[in-house]
Amino acid sequence: MIVTEPQPDQRSESHKRPVVTLSNVSKVFSSGTVALSTMSMTVEPGEFVSLLGPSGCGKSTALRIIAGLGGVSSGSVDWPSSRINAKGLPEGDIGFVFQEPTLLPWQTVFGNVYLPLRLQGVSKAAATSTVLETLDTVGLKDFADAYPRQLSGGMKMRVSIARALVTNPKLLLMDEPFAALDEITRQKLNDDVLRLWRETGITVIFVTHSVFEAAYLSNRIVVMKARPGRVHADFPITTSLERDAHYRTSEEYRQ
Ligand code: ADP
Ligand code: MG
Asked: Can you give the pTM of this predicted structure?
């Protein structure tokens, strides 16, 4: 009798690999500015990590490197659970939300959210239901035909979030997304992001200046220090959100 070994489930195995790992990353700009020096961190699937630190400590630079948008001067960055293209960069697994919504003013809300799929060669007909569902998750289904100039700052930010999510990324990067918004809008968006995180299982790295926001949202805080930029402290958050964090990282959740 031949007894076959149980094969490892490829999908759940890849699910357990880190989403991104920075190993001793340094970044020196051509101006000579050392933005990052020997920065190391690993983000596991399902984490909600806040990246906190003073202006100029390299948060945006680190986020761009994590997104594959900026090269490193030394050290390495890996995306162990992503498909890697010929340039050594992750393919389509990362959504990015910038502080400025950067929407195309001549495109409707639908057109702006469709854009990443269009760039992937998906036809409008094939993309329509995905775009509308994504708009629904950020509460903007009724605004598909509106233009950015007709929207409030908070609504524009929701469109940016929908645009980042429409490709169904594993990792969502947000660079001080709500810093320019009023407190009430910001709180609503915080709750929406938390809901998305809980419902979708997405991994989030959220850059903020606000200790309060970081504590409210995350299950882990990475504090950076300036000159040169590097990790100063890295700790889990133990608040009422701990329960969610535990749930998100439990074996049960991963299956
Ligand atoms: P943070 O997002 O924490 O405010 P940044 O990552 O934007 O910090 O910047 C880190 C440092 O690198 C700063 O000193 C900044 O001036 C510098 N820097 C950022 N981008 C560039 C660039 N494209 N060219 C030269 N210097 C840069
Ligand atoms: Mg920044």
From this structure: 0.88
